[in-house]
Design a protein that fits this description.
The protein has 299 residues and is α+β, with helices and mostly antiparallel strands. It has a 5-stranded mixed β-sheet, with helices on both faces. Strands 8, 9, 10 and 11 form a 4-stranded antiparallel β-sheet that branches. Helix 1 packs across helix 7 and helix 2 crosses helix 3. The two termini are 36 Å apart. Helices cover 37% and strands 25% of the residues. It is built from 9 helices and 13 strands. It is globular and about 60 Å long. It has a domain of 206 residues.
Length: 299
């Protein structure tokens, strides 16, 4: 069994033990999917969202992740909705934040370099903007680290900048692809999704530089599910999961994200036309990064 699947089962057992109304086993064409809420529980979940959290329902319905619908692959096979998974990051952040006034889910920001940054959460307060990326099972999967070459110029810019401790070792791949090894203080990143984080910082910087947001402080929260607080029966898998979680936290804590954000802003201002009245320090001075878990996140 894959390590991320073991984590899914552990989360399922923890949640169903605490809530007797939760049942597992989503069924499609007679086939059960054990690591997902059963059909009735998920229907109840969606109906509650539609009735009591209509903005969230709209955002998850419009998002590109197929969170609420049965998914069909290009080979014609079907899978349960992503948000029915016990290991779903979207389901985790929704359950944590659904009753927080003013909180929005599935915030999409253009990155300028190419594509859209899809953030799991966003909130505006009087003195700051809060951006949240949520991760539950993602750090435990295998990463190919192969990306579109449209990011090559940015990654090269980051690598030569003396302001950040992040570097990007780039290898040409087939066609328009590049393989990138991200490093912090010359140590390769194995579990933290640095590529996605850079894309999110691009999206945040772009939104300020193009006038989508007024200048305020920026708080970026990385919401990482803590697996050490749940029971995992398989001791070997448990040790591996705890090791990956610890390593992901260390990779986060060793990265100077404020400096990385500053470099991203410099790149955008050097390569695009932006208002001259916005200085780099206007954006970067009020930037903070916080690593949180499901137990200690506070807005």
């Amino acid at each position: 069994m894959k390590i991320e699947e073991t984590l899914d089962y552990a989360i399922m057992q923890d949640e169903t033990a605490k809530n007797q109304n939760l049942k597992s086993g989503y069924i499609i064409d007679g086939r059960p999917y054990d690591r997902y809420l059963d059909n009735k529980c998920f229907d109840d979940f969606v109906n509650d969202m539609r009735k009591n959290y209509p903005k969230a329902y709209e955002m998850y319905g419009l998002g590109k992740g197929s969170e609420l619908e049965i998914r069909k692959s290009r080979w014609g096979t079907f899978s349960p909705p992503k948000m029915a998974s016990f290991g779903s990051s979207s389901r985790m952040i929704f359950n944590l934040m659904k009753d927080t006034d003013g909180f929005l889910f599935e915030k999409q920001l253009a990155t300028t370099v190419g594509g859209i940054a899809n953030l799991d959460g966003f909130m505006e307060k009087d003195d700051k903007y809060i951006f949240i990326e949520a991760k539950c099972r993602e750090p435990y999967g295998v990463k190919a680290n192969v990306y579109e070459d449209k990011y090559e110029k940015l990654y090269s810019f980051i690598s030569i900048s003396p302001r950040t401790n992040v570097t990007c070792d780039i290898e040409k791949n087939e066609g328009t692809k590049i393989k990138v090894t991200f490093k912090v203080n010359d140590r390769p990143i194995h579990n933290f999704d640095m590529k996605q984080m850079i894309s999110h910082l691009l999206g945040v910087a772009t939104a300020f530089l193009n006038g989508t947001f007024e200048i305020k402080d920026i708080e970026f929260i990385y919401l990482l599910f803590n697996p050490t607080v749940i029971e995992i029966a398989d001791e070997k898998a448990k040790a591996k999961i705890h090791e990956i979680y610890k390593n992901t936290c260390e990779e986060c804590n060793s990265t100077d994200f404020k400096a990385l954000f500053e470099v991203v802003v410099y790149f955008l201002k050097a390569n695009k036309k932006w208002p001259k009245n916005i200085t780099t320090s206007d954006l970067t001075d009020g930037f903070t990064f916080k690593l949180c878990s499901q137990e200690n996140i506070k807005l």
